[in-house]
Amino acid sequence: MKNTTPLSDPEDFRRQAEERLRKKKRSQPQQPIAETEALRLLHELQVHQVELEMQNEELMQVREDLELALRQYIELYDFAPVGFATLTQDGTILNSNLAFSYLLGSERKTLINQRFGSYVSIEHHTSFYVFLDKVFSSGNKETVELVLKQSTGDPKWVQLEAIVDFSGKNEDVCSAAAVDITKLKRAEDQLRNLAIHDSLTGLYNRSFFMEELARMERGRSYPVSLVMADVDFLKETNDLHGHAAGDSLLKLVASVLLAVYRDEDVVARIGGDEFAVILPNTNLSTANSTLQRVRGTIAKMSADQMQTPFHLSLGAATATSPALFKNLLHQADTFMYQEKRDYHERAKYDKTAKNGSESSSSSI
């Protein structure tokens, strides 16, 4: 674009006009000498005419520059990757660019005079209108993250920034910019999911389990029951059939626990062969009945499918108040290890008895 200034200084115009007129006169045939005053007036008129021509030329150049700037602005506005719009205090859309209309899934012409809130999911309505109030009351740039309505597919997240007209000419509207952050939100969810889940079984991990245990202690979900579980013969499975078989065994335990316990229960893998379940609003009798369901399911699986003995030692304890919560983990652990000792004693006894029976049979 040419770098032009507003209309030039009148004295400068006068000087340039006289110079241009002198050049014209040199190229034209000489006129007979007239009266002095008539010649002076004619000269003035000719200079003025040249001034007007020069002003017109400069005005035409300014107009071309302005039209070029306008075209460039419109192209930048319309084809920018960021959605831009002008909103009123109640969220009415006065204008928008193509990216903004694409985010809302509507043609630009249909957006004009529509309320932006009608495109926001019902769960985020309050957040949007609180944000809009802050934009017009604070005068600062404000930011909010919203979910837009979607008829199908995953929700679309946008980050919306807005500020009141910074020129001060119209404080009843704000300029808004919207960016699609759906991929970013998905990545955040995946990272958050990895941070709280066990990678092998998909259950919650020990870190999340301990946080939930502390939250339950402070909460109002009493009575709270806790189930501890330990996989027996995991080492034997690894030694005889490899670690892949051991991993399959752990996944099998996880599937049993998920099938038995409720969605609101926190099922976690807290160690190599250790599992735990937090049961809010559950008394000891109900917790013990879930242990019977787990034992029954595993007994059937062990008999039908497992290549090595499969047993899950279980223990449950209940806290009816925060004062009793501190010993909950220790009590459940104690009951679980008691069951483990009893089970291994029985297994040892059965093995000894079996060997004795086989010796008697061979001596007959």
Give a brief outline of the structure.
55% of the residues lie in helices and 17% in strands. It has 364 residues and is an alpha+beta fold.
Protein model, in words:
A hairpin with a 7-residue loop joins strand 3 and strand 4. The protein starts with 9 loop residues before the first helix and ends with a helix. Helix 1 packs across helix 2, helix 8 packs antiparallel against helix 9 and helix 9 packs across helix 10. 55% of the residues lie in helices and 17% in strands. The strands form two sheets. The protein has a five-stranded antiparallel beta sheet, sandwiched between helices. It folds into three domains: 41 residues; 104 residues, PAS domain (Beta-Lactamase, 2-Layer Sandwich); 157 residues, Alpha-Beta Plaits, CATH 3.30.70.270. The longest helix has 44 residues. By secondary structure, it is α+β, with helices and mostly antiparallel strands. 21% of the residues are buried.
Let me know the average pLDDT. Answer: 85
CATH-defined architecture of the largest domain: 2-Layer Sandwich
CATH topology of the largest domain, by name, is Alpha-Beta Plaits
Shape: rod-shaped
User: What is the string of SSEs from the N terminus onward?
Assistant: HHEEHHHEEEHHEHHEEHEHH
Strand content: 15-25%
Count helical runs.
12
The number of distinct β-strands equals 9
SSE inventory with pairings:
Layout: H1 10-27, H2 36-79, E1 83-88, E2 93-96, H3 98-104, H4 108-111, H5 125-138, E3 142-148, E4 156-164, E5 173-180, H6 182-196, H7 206-218, E6 224-232, H8 234-241, H9 243-260, E7 266-269, E8 274-279, H10 284-304, E9 311-319, H11 322-325, H12 328-363
Antiparallel strand pairs: 1-2, 1-5, 3-4, 4-5, 6-8, 6-9, 7-8
